[in-house]
Specification:
The structure is a single chain. The chain has 168 residues and is α+β, with helices and mostly antiparallel strands. The protein folds into 2 domains: 73 residues, Roll (Ubiquitin-like (UB roll)); 85 residues, [2Fe-2S]-binding domain (DNA polymerase, domain 1, Orthogonal Bundle), CATH 1.10.150. The protein is 30% helix and 11% strand. The chain contains 5 helices and 5 strands, in the order E-E-H-E-E-E-H-H-H-H. A 5-stranded mixed sheet has the order 2-1-5-3-4, with helices on one face. A hairpin with a 2-residue loop joins strand 3 and strand 4. The N and C termini lie far apart (40 Å). The model has no long low-confidence stretch (mean pLDDT 95).
Amino acid sequence: MDLVINGKPVSVDVDPRVSLLDLLRERLDLPGTKKGCNQGACGACTVLVDGERILSCLGLAVQYEGRSVTTVEGLAEDGSLHRLQQAFIDHDGFQCGYCTPGQICSAIGMAAEARRGLPSFVTADLDGDPVPLSGEEVRERMSGNLCRCGAYNGIVAAITETFAEDVR
């Protein structure tokens, strides 16, 4: 099977029953993507596939053949953290850090959805323009990513600071 992981082509033989999460963690040594519930309920395993957020525990690796997968390890460029990674540090958007990779990947995908004008349950204006990422909008859109430590205020602050100007 051939796919692109964090910008690099990868060829791997994989049992068709292996999840994308297990391929990333166990075969490709990318431990940033976390196994939380392994049932799609917590968001710890969120990665980007062709720029869209997915729960890697719910998909079989073979489903993503020929696709581009980005994990938290692939977000930094030229030795510098992604601006959202830095914002999580600046706003204390984590405590134990277990959910952080999934939160960050999910937020990047979520911001792209808002730029495309995809509404959420709380979106007031449904005209298809980019959706401003207010705190309420971010909380709704990120509700599938759980943090047992309760670092939500820092997470929301990091996301809104990073992407507020992107979607106006």
